[in-house]
Amino acid sequence: MKPRPSLTLLLALAALLLAGCGAMTAQNPSGKYTPVNAVAEGTDARVMLKGADVVAYFVSNKFQQGLPQFSSRYEDISFRFASAENKALFDKQPTKYLPEFGGYCANGIVYGIPWGGDADTWKMIDGKLYIFGGQASKDGFEIDEKKNLALAGSYWKDEVAGNNSFVQRWKRLIFRVPHYQSGEALAKAVAEAKAKGGAAK
């Protein structure tokens, strides 16, 4: 007997959830800083930004990979640093160095979607660290940075912060925000902004 389409969909979703259990655990710690763009690595259940040194953005103005020997824990999340000095700075004042929106792509949060975020694509805005899911996402965000900061801040506060990243992601992939743009539409908008000499570079 062939399963009904609705049952097939439920089975597929269950399989996806089971396959993503490790990622779900890594991204959803029980502390105040949640959800986060973290991965499980070895015996460590959650490594922030795949081990990128969050302090390096602030003190060296660059992306640097952290090392396991310089590691700290904050809100049940592991942070790695390129040096003992950076680790000491973080330990003294951890909240100063936390990436906005849990380290997820800031442009994704504009649409209420906590997804992606490449540690080597970033921007400092008013002394805060924003991570992006590649240059195209950063370019899209910069078309109207002020508006997008406000939208992302609102969705993070009202929907994402403190909630399960996977549930929120699927919710907003199915029930899209009114201003949603596909990757194709966003790329077109970026190209138009560049042609007009707009903010996207």
Query: What's the story with the biggest beta sheet?
Result: 2 strands, antiparallel
Provide a count of the helices. 10
Q: What is the global morphology? A: globular
> What integer is the average pLDDT?
90
What percentage of residues falls in helices of 4 or more residues? 40-55%
Keywords:
46% helix, single chain, alpha+beta, two-stranded antiparallel ribbon, globular, 2 domains, 201 residues
Description:
This protein is of the alpha+beta class and 201 residues long. The protein contains ten helices and six strands. The protein has two domains: 78 residues, no CATH class; 99 residues, no CATH class. A hairpin with a 2-residue loop joins strand 3 and strand 4. Helix 7 packs across helix 10. The longest helix has 16 residues. The radius of gyration is 18 Å and the shape is globular. It starts with a helix and ends in a 6-residue tail after the last helix. The model has no long low-confidence stretch (mean pLDDT 90).
